[in-house]
Amino acid sequence: GAGARRLTLAARARQKSAAKRGADPIRTTLEGIAAPGDDTMVGLLDLDDALTELEALDPRAGRVVVLRTFGGLTSKEVSEVTDIPLRTVERVWRFARAFLAERIQTTD
User: Fold this and answer.
1) For residues 108 and 106, what is the distance between their CA atoms, to the nearest angstrom?
2) S-S: 41 plus which of 2, 27, 58, 92, CB 3.0-4.6 Å?
3) Separation CA 83–CA 4 (nearest Å)
């Protein structure tokens, strides 16, 4: 599922990073996390670290992010899968996006 996909991508990034002595060659956009139209690139390891921090603070928010970002689900689909009310999913998603965007080191 989405969680396994995230772990696989993070593990791959960590292996490549170790091979390049700290480089983070795997990068992604903040699509869905940053402001609309922001195509800023972030390191997958930075995203994974920030998401791990979010999950420790708020496991439900972490799950919503994983399902939205790595699972490709809409807020409505997340609501249906998790039995969390749609308004709550949307509120949690707004919080999680702000939290992650604040913590991720970005480069142009």
Assistant:
1) 7
2) 27
3) 21
Among 12, 15, 5, 30, which Cα is nearest to 97's? 30
Q: What is the dihedral of CA 24, 26, 29, 31, to 10 degrees?
A: -120
Sign of CA dihedral 48, 53, 59, 64: negative
DSSP 3-state assignment of 88? helix
The span from the CA of 3 to the CA of 70, in Å, is: 7
The Cβ of residue 108 has, within 10 Å, a number of other Cβ atoms equal to: 5
For residues 46 and 24, the answer to whether their CB atoms sit within 8 Å is yes
Task: Give pLDDT tens digits for 17-73.
Answer: 455 444 544 455 555 565 444 545 567 778 888 999 999 999 999 999 989 888 889
Residue 67 DSSP code: I
With a CB cutoff of 8 Å and minimum separation 6, the contacts of 39 are 29, 31
Q: How far apart are CA 102 and CA 78, in angstroms?
A: 23
